[in-house]
Every structure is written in C-alpha cells, then in structure tokens.
Design goal:
heterodimer, A: two-stranded antiparallel sheet, 74% helix, B: alpha/beta, Rossmann fold, 23% strand, binds adenosine-5'-triphosphate, binds magnesium ion, transmembrane transporter activity (chain A), Amino acid/amide ABC transporter membrane protein 1 (HAAT family) (chain A), cell membrane (chain A)
Chain lengths: 289, 278
C-alpha cells in the first residue's frame, strides 16, 4: 500500500510536467492551429537553461523558476514572429514540419555545446529528502512539483475562465475565423499566446530538471507522450490537456512499477482505448473529431 | 464544350436582365413606391448602407458568384433567395471578408472596404449571423453576448437584450450550445445587436425552427428595421421572406436573375418557386 502511494505521487509529479506542457500545446493549437512539434525541445531547453544558469551564473532553482519561463516566452515570440507566422496561411503541415526541423536544430545545438552526457542539477535546498506521512515516506520534491503544477494549472484555468483575454482565447480556440468576424483582432493575440505556450513548456522543463537527466534528447520521448496526452484529453481542449496530463503520468508510473516491460505501451493502449470509445478525446468536442 | 456552356449562360442572363428591367419599369409605372427606396434603390442618390458591386467569387477554379450587385439601405430588409448551392452563403462570407477569393467591390456607407480584415469589417458595423449560428460551446450565454466589442452607440445594452430575450437571461450561465436551436438563433442575433452592428447579415435564420419561433424572429427583424438597421437576409422560406422584406434578389447559379419589390415578389410567388425549384 505504501508503495502504491509513492507511485501515485511520482505519477502525479510527472503528470504535472505533462499537464503544464500539454496546456501550452493546447493553447497554441487552439489559437494558431499549429501542432508545435518543438514543444519537447522547448521543455528540454527549459531544463538546460536552468542547469546553465546554475553552472555559469550560480543562479539556483527558484530564480530559474521565474527566469526560464520569461526567457522561453521571448524565445516563443521570436519563433512566431520570425518563422511560424509566415506559414500560418498555408496547410498546418508546413508549420508541423517547420517545428520538427527546429527541434532537430535545437537538439543538435545543445549537443554541440553541452555534449551528450547529462548536465548536473540538484534538488534545491529545502525540497530534498522525504517526509513521513503515517507509515509512508514521500519525496518532498515530488510533493512540491505536484502542488506547484496544480497551482499553475488552476491559475491558467482562472485566466482562461475569468478574464476577457481568456474568453477571447477560448473563442478563438473554437473558431478563429468566426471570432474575427465578431470584431476581435485575433491576430493580436497570436504572438503572446504562442510565447505563453512555449513558456509553459519551459516551466515544465525547470520543474523536471532536479529529477531528470538533463540531456539534449530528454524532449524526444517527452513529445511523443505529450501527443498521446493531447489525443487522450481531446485536441484543442484545455481542461482535457490538464486532466490527461495527470492521468498519463499516473498510468506511466504504475506501468513502470508493476509492468516495467510494458510501461510505454500502456500509455498508447490507454490512448487507443479512449479513441475507440470517444474519438474526439475525453474532453474534445464532437465536431473536432 | 465548356465554352458553349458559358455562352449559353450569358445568353440566359441577358434574357433575365431584360425581364428584370421590364419588371422594374412596370413597378415604377404602377407607382408602388410605398416605402421611399423600395422599388429602385440602385438608382438612389445617397450612399446605401451596403453596396456590393459586380462581385465574383471562386473556390479554387470554380466560380460560384458572377458579377453580383446588391444594395441595402438603412432600415431596409433585402433578401437573397435562391436554391441550395446558389452562392448565398458565399456572398455573405465575402461581404464579411471571410471569403477572400473575390473580385468586385463591397462598400459600407459608400466607403470601399477593399481588403479589410473580417474584424475591421465587424468593427465598421457589419454583424454576421452564420447559418449554423456560430455559438461558442466553451462560452456561457452571457459570454457569447459580451465577446464582441461594442462598435456603435446604437448598441443594445445587456438590459435591453435580456428584456427582449428573457430566455437568454434565464440561461445566462449555461454553455451557449446547451440552448435549443431557436434560442441559439436569438442569441446569435442578440450578440450582433449588443455589438451595435448597423448592417446584419442573416443566413437562413428560420431554418429548422418551429413556426412560433420563426414568427418571433420576424418580429425582431421588423423591430431592428424600425431602428434603422439594414438587413441582408438569406432565406429559402419564401413566406417568411415575404413577411419581413422590402426587396428581394433572386440568386441562381451565382447570378442575380431577378430583383423584385416585395409586392412583385408576392404576385409572382408561385411562378418563382417553380423557377427556383424550391
Ligand atoms: N469550401 C468550399 N469549397 C468548394 N466549393 C464550395 C465550398 N463552399 C461552397 N462551395 C460551393 O459553392 C457554391 C455556393 O455555395 P454556398 O454555400 O454559397 O451556397 P448557398 O446558396 O448558401 O447554399 P445553401 O442554400 O445550401 O446554404 C456551391 O456550389 C457549393 O458547392
Ligand atoms: Mg448557405
């Protein structure tokens, strides 16, 4: 039983990384119609920048938690202004290919500069060790990562449901053309939304940094699982991205614990099952399918 | 082969134009100018609220509108009547700037809209109510109403909207698409009125709705007309069209084949119905 609770916590912590990133992927897809293949690379960059801040500027985890999303927001803005925007009018496949190419460049660039072995990063002081709840030992950092992701998801949720910007993003996610025809300059929101989505991937990277091997390749597997998350949650659904993120984290953790040989497969079995029952995903609207 | 077909169409359209001109002449002779601009608005001196001039539209290689000219004056309801696939929706989407493969001019208050974006057109005063109503599922009824910016001081206040559509007030916190078809139609119309649009583009508002609701929509159209709002109404329900409109444009294969006052339209209703295959 105590092991089960530990796995659950690990699953929820990992699920938090998925949820934050998938949230970013979902808003970008919703407003721009772009499937950002480079999302995994942006997650990786988030972790790498955190490690570099520590190694070269002695700036620790707490600073990284603020600085990295800001840097990644800027990176996203540049990416959208310099590259993505020119292909928006074309078939979505073009931007998918663009971001795929960008992923290769980013991964190779990081390899070139920092090598293939992992960059060192440690659990920040104060968040190390374990706490004992009842008879169960729980990792303090896993609890922190979990709570932090939930708080950020709730904050984003409030932004989406309680503000005018959120209302516009929701409307544009449903139908950008229609929203334009109601007098809203959707184009004005495209760049900040793209930057915001990338910043969320970067934030997930920082959160993952203390518990993962920080390598150029760390995003490659991540993006595949992220696509499974998005499909399970329902393409374009913001709530779906969050719920499916935590769900996939849990399934993966239980898989690793109880059926290590099948850990990866389990996620895709779940995805297939969801698609069979609900083709548009758990929270997807029927029209989307 | 295709050449010959196009020849034939030209011939036909020439014939139709002749017919239409004769119609207008007889209208004028009959002195049926009940409401000022009704018979011959195209010859009006002042700028119309909306004027579409020689608009053609394509989907890829396929031309679906050919030299369509349509005007709507303030406080006037003009309909576009035509069978499925005639190009009615495409015309509204072109006026809104959503359909971009077009040639010809669209002007609002006499000012050419050129290549202006759909959002600029909406802010200039054009309110589009699409055929599927375009209600957002992820927005509540109230948010659906509050989404568009207010663009004109004639905009309806939320009180006025709720006063006119009590059902929307009752369901203000429901997701927009949880409303019935008729309620969604009301919501879509209320949304552009709250915005203060001076020209409404209504795409088959009566489609699939119960007679009482169609009647209610007719009342609303007459009321906004009285406020000086212009309406370009796409309809296949000829009886409904006749009950609200001043003038009618009959569209067939992407061309205006007839332009009739409401009386002329009523007089020839059964003939037109067969002609249009409706
Ligand atoms: N996205 C599209 N791609 C290609 N052709 C299209 C597209 N949309 C419409 N068409 C074609 O353009 C023509 C006009 O269509 P449109 O929807 O404007 O007609 P409509 O008069 O509104 O018809 P309905 O009464 O069925 O709503 C039709 O022949 C239709 O098949
Ligand atoms: Mg139509």
């Amino acid at each position: 039983m105590s092991e089960f609770i530990q796995y659950t916590l690990q699953g929820l912590a990992a699920g938090g990384f998925y949820a934050l990133s998938a949230l970013g992927l979902a808003v970008i897809f919703g407003v721009l119609g772009v499937v950002n293949f480079s999302h995994g690379a942006c997650y990786m960059l988030g972790a790498v920048i955190a490690a570099v801040l520590l190694a070269e500027l002695s700036l620790g985890f707490w600073v990284a938690l603020v600085v990295v999303p800001v840097v990644m927001f800027g990176f996203g803005v540049l990416m959208e202004r310099l590259l993505v925007q020119w292909l928006l009018a074309l078939d979505p496949l073009y931007n998918f290919l663009l971001t795929f190419g960008l992923t290769l460049i980013l991964v190779e660039a990081v390899k070139l500069r920092y090598g293939v072995s992992g960059l060192p990063y440690e659990i920040p002081a104060g968040l190390g060790g374990q706490v004992t709840v009842g008879s169960v030992n729980l990792s303090v950092y896993a609890i922190f990562a979990c709570v932090f992701s939930v708080v950020v998801c709730i904050a984003v949720g409030l932004l989406m449901t309680r503000t005018r910007i959120g209302m516009i993003v929701r409307a544009a996610t449903e139908d950008a053309g229609r929203t334009r025809a109601l007098g809203i300059n959707v184009g004005r929101w495209v760049t900040p939304v793209f930057g915001f989505g990338i910043a969320l991937a970067g934030l997930a990277g920082v959160l993952a940094a203390p518990t993962r091997a920080i390598t150029a390749e760390m995003g490659s597997n991540f993006i595949i699982i992220l696509f499974a998350v998005v499909v399970i949650g329902g393409l374009g659904s913001i709530l779906g991205a969050v719920v499916a993120g935590f769900l996939v984290g849990l399934v993966e953790a239980y898989g690793v614990a109880y059926a290590p040989a099948y850990a990866q497969i389990v996620i895709f079995v779940l995805m297939a099952a969801v698609i069979l029952v609900r083709p548009s995903g758990l929270f997807g609207r029927e029209e989307v399918a | 082969m295709s050449e010959r077909m196009s020849e034939r169409t030209d011939e036909q359209s020439a014939e139709r134009t002749a017919e239409w001109t004769a119609e207008r002449a007889s209208d004028a002779a009959g002195g049926q100018a009940a409401t000022a601009p009704s018979g011959q608005p195209a010859d009006d001196a002042g700028p119309a609220l909306l004027s579409v001039t020689d608009l053609s539209a394509w989907y890829g290689e396929a031309r679906v509108l050919t030299d369509v000219s349509v005007t709507v004056a303030p406080g006037e309801v003009a309909t576009l009547v035509g069978r499925n696939g005639a190009g009615k929706t495409t015309l509204l989407r072109s006026v809104m700037g959503l359909h971009k493969q077009v040639k010809g001019a669209v002007a609002l208050d006499g000012r050419d809209l050129g290549r202006r974006s759909p959002d600029a057109r909406a802010r200039a005063g054009i309110g589009w109510v699409p055929d599927d109503r375009g209600i957002y599922a992820s927005l509540s009824v109230e948010e659906n109403l509050l989404l568009p910016p207010v663009v004109h001081d004639s905009a309806w206040s939320m009180e006025k909207v709720y006063d006119h559509f009590p059902v929307l007030a009752e369901r203000r916190d429901f997701p927009g698409t949880k409303l019935s078809g008729g309620e969604q139609q009301m919501l879509a119309m209320a949304r552009v009125l709250r915005m203060g649009s001076r020209l409404l583009l209504l795409d088959e508002p009566s489609e699939g709705l119960a007679p009482v609701i169609v009647q209610r929509i007719g009342e609303i159209i007459r009321e906004i007309k009285a406020q000086g709002v212009g309406v370009l109404l796409v309809e296949q329900n000829v009886t409904f069209a006749r009950s609200v409109a001043d003038r009618h444009y009959l569209l067939a294969q992407g061309q205006v084949v007839e332009h009739l006052s409401n009386d002329a339209f009523a007089a020839r209703e059964s003939e037109l119905l067969t002609h249009l295959g409706m």
